[in-house]
Amino acid sequence: MSTRLLRGGVAAAAAALLALAGCGGGGGNGSGSAPAPQLNLTGEKSGKLTIVTKFADPQYAPYFVEITKAYQAANPKVTIDLQQVGDQPYKDKIRVLSAANQLPDIYFSWAGDFANKFVRAGLAADLSSVIGPDTAWGKTFAPASLKAFSDSGKYYGMPIDLDGKYLVYNKTAFAKAGIDNPPATFEDLLTDCGKLKAAGYTPIAFGNQYGWPAIHFITQLNAYDVPGDQLAKDYNPKTGAFTDQRYVTALQQFKSLADTCSNSGANGLAHEAAQANLVSGKAAMQYMESLEFKVMTVAGGAPKETADNWSFMRLPPSSSAAGDTKALTGAPDGFMVNAKSKQAALAVDFLKFFSNQENASKMVKELGWLSPVSGSVTNDNAFPQLVDTLKDMNEASQFAIWLDTVTQATVADAYLSGVEGMLSGDKTPEQVMKGVQDAAAKAKKQVG
């Protein structure tokens, strides 16, 4: 399976929007709020829509094709140009389209500062009047999913899915290692890794070829170790400094985890290759997105022995954690509407169709993704672990959005390269944070 979320290059793509954000390249005011276009249809449904997604993977692309065909069948005077590319090609494509002021009517976005750059550049339509939490359409979504695409009290995106990060584990491996219950603390996890090694397993399968898998660990550990008000200050490019010692603590914890629990050579191993070791029973755990959970089922290609004997848990916090121990790393993916689209109202109508109860439930069943649409996940269309994941997400205090999309691009790049260096033994946690601090200082100058 090829994961959908190769975020290692997201920061580089987002960096290309910096100049646009500074000059309002999308025709907006460049200060964070584009003029709201007409979002409600007043006549018949007709015209052409252009949509660009990053769901070209053969496992996912047919679903989006099916939805667009169904909409066109119901609305014969509408034609849709659906363009689906892979993760890295999407980053390249959206950069070019943004620079040329030729964004499609509907385009994909990650949550966090990646989305906010479109907002600051005046490239994203303010959808508050149609998808705000008090609107009829907005009330059909989980509130946290809408909040992920909000900025300064306004709402700019429609969440596509719900995605959280969990340690997926092989229950047979735990039993053979004498582990009766999942570890409750980070310290317990390190101890259990020793038991799993003694039982002949790689405790945590880890491939960091593209950088983002390590950053997901850091995202969660930062949320656990650093108080929320400090995180909010540092993740804001206008105020970030990252001088709190607890950021170093999070890196030290991750280094302990990598040294104690994971396989060697992680920087040269793809996430998918590491995942294969979990699916085959050679590894006991992997830090995995809920969007990937299908790979652990027979329908997703796993052997029955694996499919019948797995569960998940959150990465446990340290017993000394000073931050939010109920936060969960994750975020929805989303669609945004071009602020200059002449078909903005039709685009909104399509997104309402895309996210109706029937289509949301179909997405859960066909793709194995959690939908942010209330009532779309049931025992009839989802495997048990997916149903339980939604319950767990609902108990989270908040989403800790992926570090490489919630932070400004310069900071994200410093974290990515720094943590890779730490894994290879070339940098200490303190040196990594010095690089992040320098990047934060540059970010302040870039955003003014």
TrEMBL record:
Annotated keywords: Signal, Transport
Xref: Pfam families: SBP_bac_1
Organism domain of life: Bacteria
Signal peptide: 1-21
Chain segments annotated as transmembrane: none
InterPro entries from the UniProt entry: Bact_solute-bd_prot1, SBP
Family: Belongs to the bacterial solute-binding protein 1 family.
Protein name in the entry: Extracellular solute-binding protein
Taxonomic source organism: Planosporangium thailandense
